[in-house]
Amino acid sequence: MRKTFVLTLAASAFFTGAVAAAPAVGNEPLDAATLGTIRSKFGRLMELANKHDFPALHAMFWQSPSTLLVAKSAIQSEGNWAGYWGNEAIDQKLHDIGSSGPVLLAPDYSRLRVVGLTHDVAESYVPMNITVSYAGQDGTARPFLMIINWLRVGKDWKVASEIILPVPPVPAAKG
Length: 175
Fold this sequence. Notes:
Blueprint lengths: L1 H20 L10 H20 L2 H7 L7 E5 L8 E5 L1 H12 L4 E5 L5 E4 L4 E12 L9 E12 L2 E11 L9
Parallel strand pairs: 1-7
Antiparallel strand pairs: 1-2, 3-5, 4-5, 5-6, 6-7
Helix pairs in contact: 2-3
């Protein structure tokens, strides 16, 4: 009984602390200027990707083994899509994709959404068309979703994870 009480008390203190640390519902943890900065960083990321400026792309990512890129795989054992962890793996993947032929990322900026999750973490979401001839893709523009987690590092915002997901085709109507 005493053990249960102590565990309940400890769990209550933990969850109360977690709730107290989270922003209140309806309170945006980042101001409009900061969200605008992240939107600009996203635009710069797209510009650099379309130019295949690999050194500048490298600098936009958080320098950590925990940095993640989810992208199309060219290696059968990895499956069709895979996660690439750490800057060396990300640099290599971006180089492989960019060197495979024409690559064009065309985000729908009217649908770009940037939200603050905490004072140091934000997330962006945007549908886009990507034209690429990498890993069996035929160079036809196809719809994707790009979800990026941004991390404040000092006074700058860096890409902590970039998840690129293909949008599946609409199923054919029956009948």
